[in-house]
Design a protein that fits this description.
Layout (H helix, E strand, L loop, with lengths): L20 H34 L5 E6 L4 E7 L12 E4 L9 H13 L7 E4 L3 E5 L5 H12 L5 E9 L2 E10 L5 E4 L11 H21 L1 H7 E3 L11 E5 L12
Antiparallel strand pairs: 1-2, 1-5, 2-3, 4-5, 6-7, 6-10, 7-8, 9-10
Amino acid sequence: MPNPRPILAPTGPAPYRRTDPARAYQQALHREAEAQQALAVTAYELLAAQARTHVPETAAIEFEPTPTSDRIRALWANPRDHRYPTPPLLWRRAPTLSSEPPWLRKAERLLPTVLLGAHLPATELAGHRCLLNLPAPDVAAALASRTRRAFPQATALLLSLDARPRSITVQVANIVGPDGTSLHAIPNEHAWAAPPAQAWWRHNKGHVIRAVRHLWAHPDHRARHFQAQGHHSLMWNQGLQALVLPPIPALPGLHP
């Protein structure tokens, strides 16, 4: 027996819009590139976690690209850490392994996916090997710690952001305090700012930009830490963004 109750709200004819095939194709390519970048950056974090199950102090992986696979050769402490003139070698792969440990198998399976991502801090070494610096165990916490060493009241970074396939451009404008006002303005490439912002930015710019790119590319971190503050523009397609720092003290040992 037919049901007399309506199953749809009253509707009118949909407006006729012809699909632009070229535009639809470009939009699909953009979504695919963004998804690939998100996959790479999530695999990057998982790779770091797998290496640290073996040696918690691991900050960099030495690997050798081969035609069939990428083989991890060594684990290193932080190569940029001023406490170690020569970075400590934490683990070296034996010339012959009777059986590969589970963490190594998982890490090597992740490497090809990780290397699809852009902005990775990898350095070519002699002998066709590469050194890949790993992200901090908590990238947002490390960024908050780094910022609050100079600005203890900082709650957010105000920045402009342009995100395109394989490219994330960032310009940090202000360090923001708990009342939403600027604690310090960050200078651009040709401007001057009052200390301590000038010196802090000069020494920490690379770390901050890498952290912002990482957090934006990772879907969970983007949803958790970014709040849109302004309209998109031709120069900054993601407009003005506030990167909200997690509420932790400036603890030592969290720097990437």
